[in-house]
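Hi all, a correction to my earlier message: I attached the wrong file for G-protein coupled receptor 26. Here's the right sequence:
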Amino acid sequence: MHIADMAVSVFVVVIIAVSFLSNVVVLICFLYNQEIRKQVPGLFILNLTVCNLLLTVSNMPLTLVGLINKGNTGGSGFCQTVGFLDTFLTTNSMLSMGALSIDRWVAVVFPLSYHSRIRHRDAVIGLGYTWMHSLSFSTVATCASWVGYHHLYASCTLCNARASGSRTQFIIYTVVLHSLTFLLTLIVLCVTYLKVLKVARFHCKRIDVITMQTLLLLVDIHPSVRQRCLDEQRQRRQRATKKIITFIGTFVVCFAPYVITRIFELFTLGQINPHWGVLSKCLAYSKAACDPFVYSLLRNQYRKTCSDLTNKILKRSSFNSSARMVENGRVNDTNNFKPTH
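and the right structure:
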């Protein structure tokens, strides 16, 4: 095996492990914490988590096997099913990210009317659209037999070779697919999160004015306290920017190389480096490993839930261990006791 293939294979194994464990933790937190289940964004996070888990257990292992065996690992029907899931789950995940950004925008820009603007019914309608959107594109590709094993990406996905008889239709389909998924979601992310950043900076400026006025009034304040207030002021300004960069940056870094390669593949006559094709596919997979941290596990509510679950498990384990020690002590005392006649 080529050294590049070995490196990519290790990368896929790491992605599978991190994606599976982190998404399972998010799912456990969702099922355990009633407050998370009551929140409207919880529905979108649940949908995103389930899509990531299915992608992790169905498509990623087959890509790993394709890298090792240098070819298709199943029959035509099996590969078409996996390719259907690839298009459906990837599209559904992207649209779920767009829905989460819209929810965050409404929550920040319209905080007083958020619960009247975004309700569970609206979230269900949004989820219904994401499923209809994803099912439509994946069904069209499967029915047109455009899904198969693609050696460039070492996976069962949309395949140019299977569309040789209807190349124009395939080009139109691919361009529309990525325009209404990747490009549309990217525009929604940029518009909503930049508006959120604008509101966050406005509030930071108001807090900064109040902080500076307070520091000017407190002339006897210790220099270390003053410096700490200024440091917190600077961190507050940077925190919102870092979060927005994380939301948009992970989406672009993970999906853009794969989408650009797909579009470039349609119009180029030359051969694309297969190592780059597999790497771009793996970067798209890596979004499933990033999402649990970006949208869930780094939030205080999920961190507290994880801490509560860990403490509960450790206490139960400690209690069981103590109970066993007490029981063993009683048995030893009974064995050591010798009645006198």
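Sorry for the mix-up. Strands lie at 147-150, 155-158.
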